[in-house]
Every structure is written in C-alpha cells, then in structure tokens.
Write a structure and sequence with these properties.
The chain has about 110 residues and is an alpha+beta fold. It contains 4 helices and 4 strands, in the order E-H-E-E-H-H-E-H. About 40% of the residues lie in helices and about 30% in strands.
C-alpha cells in the first residue's frame, strides 16, 4: 500500500544537505520512493509544533520500501550528511487515501 512521508525540517548546513540530496534521489527511486512536493515555509497561522522552514513530501510504495532505503548498505554513507545538514527534523508517515471520506471512515472505526 502506498504511503506518504511528510518531512519537516530546518537546514543547518546547506553543503551537508546538498551532499545528501545528490545521492538520495537515486536511492529513493531504487527503493520505490519519489519526492512529489517541496515547500518553503510561508507562514504558520496555527499548529502545536514549532514551525519548520522546509517541507518535503515523499510517496513510497510501502513501509517496506522505506525500511529498504534506510537500511541499504550502499546508502549508509549519505545518512550522516542528512543528519549534519538538518535540524528539528520531523518525519510522519501517512497512508495514502482515495479521498477525505475514506479517511473519515477509518477514523470513525478507530483504525
């Protein structure tokens, strides 16, 4: 089942994050992931978490594909660049839904 990974973060070292990003895109594709949206914070009118400056939305084939990306030994050398390049990192996973009604049905049934 497709799943979305919402990543929110602040860049603390652009050079480090660039090193990560150069190789991450190919690794994402190899493991069934695709970055589908990027955003720079415009404003934060509401919310209960500290705002982050950068948003990235990645669509993955499954949780298994995410795990494959994280645990891929060929990509182990790039993850420290991400860790050195960002701060205040938040990562949430969301099931892909057809529409708002299917989400409401799941919420109502307690899933």
């Amino acid at each position: 089942m497709a799943i979305f990974a919402l990543n929110l973060f602040n860049v603390k070292n652009a050079d480090e994050y660039r090193q990560y990003a150069r190789e991450a895109e190919a690794g994402l594709a190899r493991h069934g992931g695709k970055a589908i949206a990027f955003g720079l914070l415009d404003s934060s009118p509401q919310g209960d978490i500290k705002p982050r400056k950068v948003m990235m939305l990645v669509e993955w084939e499954s949780k298994k594909s995410i795990k494959g990306y994280i645990e891929d030994p060929e990509l182990a050398h790039i993850h420290p660049h991400r860790e050195a390049g960002v701060e205040d990192f938040v990562w949430h996973l969301f099931e892909k839904a057809e529409d708002m009604y299917s989400i409401l049905k799941k919420v109502e049934s307690g899933q």
